[in-house]
Structures are given as structure tokens and as C-alpha cells.
Write a structure and sequence with these properties.
- With about 375 residues, the chain is mostly helical.
- Helices cover about 65% and strands about 0% of the residues.
- The protein is globular.
- The termini are far apart.
- The model has no long low-confidence stretch (mean pLDDT about 90).
Length: about 375
Amino acid sequence: MPCSPKHAIATHAIAEHLARRDVEALPAFSEIPPRRLRVLTAASWGRADAVGSEVDHLPTDLATGLWWRISELCKHSEDLTPLERDTAGTLMLRLGYPEQAARLLGITDVLAGMPAFPRDVRPEHALARVTVTLQLHPRPALVVTQALRAVADPRLSVLTRLTLAGFAMPLEASREAGSGALHEAVRLTEQALTRLIDVDSEHRWVERRVLQSLADAAVLRGDPEAASAYLDRAALGAMGVRPHGSLQRLAWDEEVLALLASQGRACRSKDDAEGAVAATSRMPGIAPYDAHAWAAHGYALLAAGRLDESLHAYEEMLPLGGHPVAAAAFHLGWIHESRGDRRRAQDAYAYSHSIDPTVPAVKERLSSFR
């Protein structure tokens, strides 16, 4: 546990509290690990038997007592309170089981698109509901469109509307950076932010997440100055947070990591390589066992031409194991090759290919050594 990435520690904490039926004590976690994380990690470890779509399919040698207690609770979800069911659904989503998450969250018709939200839904559970639908719907773009439309729905609370905006804007910007729907959503989101006044401090993360999403969308729209302005506001809000206890600190760390990664992307988008290095330099200190933190900083260093430091960052990823090592090894190969050390470059490319044989760029570099 102490040597695990932050997202894994958070997921374990959620599971422990659910098993103890003590979910009221959990803070809000604003980040949900991507679905592919579990599948890719299991495959990279050579455990294809751990990539199944159901919790009960996990091999017994990988399952702990806590795992089976959670599995039993989910099987008898009718005995859970609404808050416990929402927490269980969010947990299944974090673990990479969206079908089970949908059942627990009561999303029975994924094909209808974005689910209806209970009047008292928590923002983090609203995020889980729409994320599940996005992952399972055959037309994900439809879910994003519906989420953008819901930002203008006065029947939803301001917090829920902002949660949906934070979810949908970067996705829409990556697909249609200049769309009228995106520009209207940005306008409505900024308008909703002005109404976010009397909100429990536990949910101020929604405001900071939305500002980060506005920044990511601005980068994709080619407006790095706007992105920087949004991120400055988000950083100012984050600096005012004083976490109490290990769980709140963990939630805050997850949020700050996402913010620093966004700052790095914004700096790179305006050709400020050193700014990206400065932004991402804090990430490994916050999460020394998180491959994403080292990868973000390593890439920033690489873009700045600081090869020695980038080499060190990618080497730090290797002992962490799992699928991210494939990308780290590829970048190590590129650095060695650029320095003329073909033997080390070939070894690094071969190592990357052994972990993930599906990447064309790795195959291309390996073929050049024959």
C-alpha cells in the first residue's frame, strides 16, 4: 500500500470504508482512473486471467479478503443504503468494471444515453454515472452531447451541471474544438460558476475541476492564454485548501496532480517548455510511485531538451512495473538512440515491445536495427 500510486490507495480506502459500512466518512474524490488501466496493467504482467469483465472472475491468488467482502456486498446491493450503492458503483468504476457499476448505480438503459440524476446525487457520483454511460454506450459522442446540453438544464443543481461540464468539455474539444455546442457550453459554465457561492467546502473541488476542464478545452481550441487564466484561478482555489486527515489529503493530492498535469499541457501549448518542466516537477514528489507523475515530468523534460534529467525520470518508472513501463522504455530508447548509443536503444525498444507489442512506433524503431 505505501508504495502504490495515489489512485490505487484512494480506491483501497473507498473499499475499506464500504466494507465497514462507513461511507459517510469518505471525502469526495474528483478523479476516476480510466477503464483501460486495470486491463492493460493485468495484460502487461502476463495475467490475461485478470482482465475479465466481472468482479468474481478475478483469480483467487490476486483477490484479498477485502475484495471478497466487497463482492458479497455488491451481490446483495438491495441491503445497501442509496449512498452505499452509489459508493459501490463508483468503486466498481474505479476498479474497471463498468457493467457492474451500471447495475449498482441503477443505470438500466445505457442505450438511452445520459442517465437521469436523483435530486440529491453527490457530484462525485454524478461523475461516476455519466462516466459509466460514456464507457458502455455504442455512440460515446452522443453521451458527451447530452452532457453538454444538460449544463443548461435548470432542473439540475448547479453542482451537478458543473460536474457534467467538467466531464464533457475536454472530450468535446478533442473531437470538435470549434463547435458551437462547445462555445455555448463554455459560456453557460462560466455563468454557472458565478452562481457557485454557498457551497459546502467539501464540494469546492467541483469548481476547481471545471476550471481545469475549461483550461484543457482552451488548449485544444488553440487558446493557451485563456487556459493559463483558468488554471491560475484553479491553483488559487487549491492553495486555499487545508486538508484534515489522511483521506482528505489523499483526495487533495489527486486533485493537485491533475491540476499540475493540466498546467504542463497549457505551458507546452504556448511553447513554454521550461514552464511545463516547472509545473510537472512537483508531481513525482506528491506521487513517487505513480507512473503518470513521472511520465508527465519526463515528457516535459524531453520537450525542453533536458535529456539527462528526462532519462532519470523514465528510469524511475521502470521499477513501478505494469503497462506504463512500455512507454517509459520507448522514450529511453529514443534518448539513447539520439545520443548514438544504439545497443542500449535497441535493448530499450525490445523491452518496450515485450510489454506492449501493439505500438507501431516501437516496431518501426526496432526494425531499423536489423
